[in-house]
Design a protein that fits this description.
Elements (H helix, E strand, L loop, with lengths): L8 H4 L2 H23 L1 H15 L5 H12 L7 H11 L1 H16 L3 E2 L2 E2 L1 H12 L5 H26 L4 H31 L4 H27 L4 H28 L2 H4 L5 H4 L5 H12 L3 H10 L7 H13 L2 H21 L7 H13 L4
Antiparallel strand pairs: 1-2
Helix pairs in contact: 2-3, 2-5, 4-5, 4-10, 4-18, 5-8, 6-8, 6-9, 7-8, 9-10, 10-11, 11-17, 14-15, 14-17, 15-16, 17-18
Keywords: Isoprene biosynthesis, Magnesium, Metal-binding, Transferase
Organism: Actinokineospora globicatena
Cofactor: Mg(2+)
């Protein structure tokens, strides 16, 4: 059962545009201030702004916004503008995560463009500066990622929210930052240990993706609207399951998706040594079936910087043949169904329930 409310589509129908507007205005103010104090750093900040504004689906602000709307928040007006500012700051946390993740994984491409550390290494080489270009690129990426995280806090605090609502939403905000960093650490730890267990891969998915991509943004939006504990719990349960399903879909896209769509080379997860659930299931089934040669081939691909296209293709074939792809698809389906049950059990103002269900399907559906 859904509650009804009068709908103003001015923000609902063009949410990404409004998020972009808030981010652009905020980043320009901060860039101008930095350029005045330190022109050279102002130039570096321009690259961060270009990265933030240069792509992305704005998933996190979207989930937060629709939790706000579902818990009774208005679609327009001064309070809605303040909420929009607060949830737009989620994109700066995302920028921090991506810039640092690309550096840790030594990824060369993001959204079809050079990653931040690669961009600044190239800048160093072009200008003939002292030291090594790789070290300079890494330093720049660390600092700009840190700046994005600091400015995320600043942008959130700058939102003209009622003090009690700001304090309530600060709980998921603070938890989200820590969970995102914990998930990143678990990711690199799993790679370093060579942990192939399903439990380890799911823990990374839960902490690195589900918590800060879906669950906590929903929690944040609901808290901003003053939602009760029952609504918050239902939205968090929905978000936790959809968030993991979203990561599992992303793992499949990383292995089988169109590079023009994903913006990253095929097989990047293999080269980076990612112990995804897909690989965990594939390796486990190969070992159980006594297919030692197949298991050895897949293990040799993990973390191999010089991985060739033939090995990538053979690994893809093996994961299908071993039933790993089908098993991951099954888990995505089960998680999505569980999430939908949690969402259906809570009373939300429309159209938020339908929109959130649609977002869940869009985030987890198979590529056509």
């Amino acid at each position: 059962m859904r509650r009804t409310q009068v709908i103003d589509n001015s923000m609902d129908g063009a949410l990404a545009v409004h998020v972009e507007r808030n981010l652009s205005a905020y980043l320009e103010r901060r860039r101008a201030g930095m350029a005045e104090m330190a022109p050279s750093f102002g130039s570096a900040v321009e690259s961060l702004a270009a990265f933030v504004l240069g792509g992305g689906k704005r998933i996190r602000p979207t989930f937060a916004w629709w939790a706000w709307r579902g818990a009774g928040g208005a679609g327009s007006g001064p309070e809605a503008e303040a909420v929009l500012c607060a949830v737009s700051a989620l994109e700066l946390i995302q920028a921090c995560a991506l810039v640092h993740d690309d550096l840790m994984d030594d990824s060369a491409v993001r959204r079809g463009k050079p990653t931040v550390h690669v961009e600044f290494a190239a800048r160093h080489r072009e200008r003939g500066w002292l030291g090594t270009s790789e070290r300079f690129g890494a330093a720049a990426a660390i600092l700009l990622g840190d700046l994005a995280l600091a400015w995320a806090d600043d942008m959130y605090v700058s939102a003209d929210l009622p003090p009690d609502r700001r304090a309530a939403a600060l709980v998921p905000w603070q938890a989200m930052r820590a969970e995102m960093l914990a998930g990143q650490y678990l990711d690199v730890l799993t790679q370093a240990k060579g942990d192939e267990s399903a439990a380890a891969s799911l823990s990374v998915a839960r902490m690195k993706t589900a918590a800060y991509t879906v669950e906590r943004p929903l929690h944040m939006g609901a808290a901003l609207a003053g939602a009760d504990e029952r609504v918050v719990a239902a939205l968090r349960a929905f978000g936790a399951d959809i968030g993991v399903a979203f990561q599992l879909r992303d793992d499949l896209l990383g292995m089988y998706g169109d590079t023009d769509v994903t913006g990253k080379p095929a097989g990047d997860d293999l080269r980076e040594g990612k112990r995804t659930l897909l690989m965990s299931i594939g390796l486990g089934r190969a070992d159980a079936a006594g297919r030692s040669a197949d298991a050895a081939l897949m293990r040799s691909a993990l973390g191999n910087d010089n991985l060739d296209s033939a090995t990538v293709e053979r690994t893809r074939e093996l994961l299908v043949d071993l039933g790993a792809v089908a098993e991951v698809e099954c888990q995505i389906g089960e998680l999505t169904e569980s999430a939908m049950r949690a969402l259906g059990g809570v009373d939300l103002a429309e159209p938020a329930g339908d929109v959130l269900a649609g977002l869940a399907v869009s985030a987890t559906k198979r590529a056509s």
